[in-house]
Amino acid sequence: MAAAPTLTDLLVIGGGPAGLSAATMFARTLRPGVLYDSGVYRNAPAKESHTIPGFDGADPAAYRSKAAADLARYTNIEVRKGKIVNLVRDDKGFTATDADGRVTTARKVVLATGVKDNLPPIPGLAAQWGRRALHCIFCHGTETANARMGFLLTPPAEGKVPNAVIVGMILSVWAAIPYPAKYLFTHGMDTSTEQGAKDAGIWGLEDVLSMRGFTVVNDKIERIEDTGDSLSVEFGSREAVPVANLLVVPDSSEPNGDAKAWLTEGLLGGAIGFGGALPPIGPDAPPAAMPPRGGVDPRTPTPGLFWAGNAGSPACNVAMAASHGQVAAAVAAHEIGSEDVATAKVVIPKMHAAMGRRH
């Protein structure tokens, strides 16, 4: 016999930093909540994470474990391991179904579902993601200093961060990190031509790159080999280039596989945006009754449905994601309480009138 549906005030979908933070924030109200943790985490391949106060350099799993232990102290939040396979908005609020057929009805929902990164299809690259293939100076880049460094560019494509943006980031944010050798791999884009240089994002910057010691390699990469203490970037047309680490920006990002199927435009009230970002509330919407902290509005176009972390801000790091979770939970809690007050203002006079008729 199927279990009776769970009725709760807040459903948090996602057990990463944003979801754990949202659930902990909401727990402070002592209202009931449910958190679903699918076990899918964007930073799972990484063994270190940085810029998290108190956890700088720690394994991301250690941060999640401590955050989960903190949440476990609050008995009003039920944590479930499993995946949500369907979420719909109805007259009760939201109804979610998990992979085991268990149904949860919630007044509000925080989507902390994260995103999945789609890497360039170069053999051997995926195995290095989060290890020697890195995407962010703040998360992992500082530790690449004083070793041979590669920076990967791939041909322009729809949904991809423009190469000019990536090159601008390399020349600005990464500029102070010392390297004995720096290679800019254009993966087949011929930067000796105007179009190739524009496609690679280096048009007009060739002299700057040369002055800063970059070697531009235009040959197409065949594969990435792990040599134990470094990477070997292999080509079919020239000798391999050894590097200790490689900057890689994903070709695209999209909602995580377990959530992608039900994160529809009908549910969200808008289309999935660049990088897999959930749609934000429109610019003409009235402001939230409780002003969002940190300048981030966690509301989506669908009333009662909120985003947190990479689900709505694919470029944010762990600390930012945790902050988003707190903002979403605070605004959700205020909405719930305000709705209760509005209901009481209608119901109480009716109760008084009914009692008066009985006397």
TrEMBL record:
GO biological process terms on file: cellular response to toxic substance
Signal peptide: none
TM regions (residue ranges): none
Record InterPro entries: FAD/NAD-bd_sf, FAD/NAD-binding_dom, Ferredoxin-NADP_redctase_2
Keywords recorded for this protein, A-Z: Flavoprotein, Oxidoreductase
Any GO molecular function: oxidoreductase activity
Domain FAD/NAD(P)-binding residues, every copy: 9-131
Family from the record: Belongs to the class-II pyridine nucleotide-disulfide oxidoreductase family.
PANTHER family, alphabetized: THIOREDOXIN REDUCTASE 1-RELATED-RELATED
Name used for this protein in its record: Thioredoxin reductase sirT
Organism encoding this protein: Vanrija pseudolonga
Designated gene of the protein: sirT
